[in-house]
Amino acid sequence: MSETTGRRGRPGHDQQAVLRVAVDLFNRQGYDATSVGDVARELGLTKSAIYHHVPSKEHLLQSAIDEALDALTAALDAVSAAEGLDAGQRLRAAVRSSVTVLVDHLPAVTLLLRVHGNTPVEKAALARRRGIDERLAAMVREAADVGAIRADVDPLLTSRLIFGMVNSMTEWLRGDTDGEALADTVTTLAFDGLVRHED
Question: If we measure between CA atoms, which residue out of 100, 56, 93 comes closest to residue 76?
Answer without folding.
Answer: 93
